[in-house]
Amino acid sequence: MPSTVAGILQNEPLRNHTTIKIGGPARYFSRPSSLEELKSALAFARDRGLSIYVISGGSDIVFPDRGYDGLVIRLDGIRGVERADEDVIMAYAGESIPSLAILAEQWGLSGFEYLFGVPGRIGGAIAKNAGAYGLEIKDILQEVELVTWEGDVVRMSPREIAIRYRESDVLKYGVVYRAWFRLRKDSPESIRQRREDFSKKRMRTQPYGVATAGCMFKNPPGHSAGKLLDMVGMKGERRGDVMISRKHANFFINLGEGKSEDVIYLVELARKRVFEEFGVKLEEEVIILR
Ligand code: EPU
Asked: Which residue among 35, 100, 143, 254 has its CA within the 20 to 30 Å range from the CA of 86?
């Protein structure tokens, strides 16, 4: 049963905090809503020698069914957006990408409309360099402010966090607290038009309104993972309550009672089939804690 110690929840079910709705209890769970609360959650873990896992929207992670034996910090309470300069927006780690996209659009600042349908929040989007329709977070990220594992606040450039295709080194240093994005001025009307076009395309090609963690595998250089998975017949493959989407083969859907072991089974099956057929090794994009 969930309970609280020093403002930190105990035994909080992680399936309630991930978009794929999978994951057993976190031994400790914190949802800070300020810098001070974030620092004290980090100190709580340091004092007890606990391992820490950080999520923001929980949209790119599969936790084990047995849960997480440490502290999970969810950043979605640290929110807010400010216009820092004519063409610069500052956003806190827990801000959602769709709401940031709408705000930027109203301010006539282009960039986030490409990412409108990405369900995550800023912290995770930076850590995993979220991208869609030819734009990645790294293209607009100017600077990021982190709270280090030791509790210090530092600013780093995209180069310093080594941001790259669906990866970065953020977690080597600490937790994203807020970030600055340099956007391009454009008319709200043309930004809206692009947002709607990308949205329609996404709805046509990707599942929505269901429990998924986004694309399961990275695109190998020169290939689309979804296309390869489709070609080896993975669409509709099912194990327990986890099924590979019939619309886009790189999306794994939790139909209700899906387990992480079902995801892992299908991941390995998919990887094996694609390797045997095409000699291509698929690498996971979603973080699967085993
Ligand atoms: N395709 C198939 N069958 C499928 C899926 C795709 O034949 O089941 C084909 C499509 O017809 C198309 C090609 O594969 O010709 C590429 O598909 P799509 O345009 O859907 O893009 P993608 O490469 O599968 C990438 C990103 C998505 C992002 C879209 C749109 C990765 C792993 N995926 O998908 O990002 O939304 O482009 O820009 O980089 C994510 O990161 O979680 C994610 C979903």
From this structure: 35
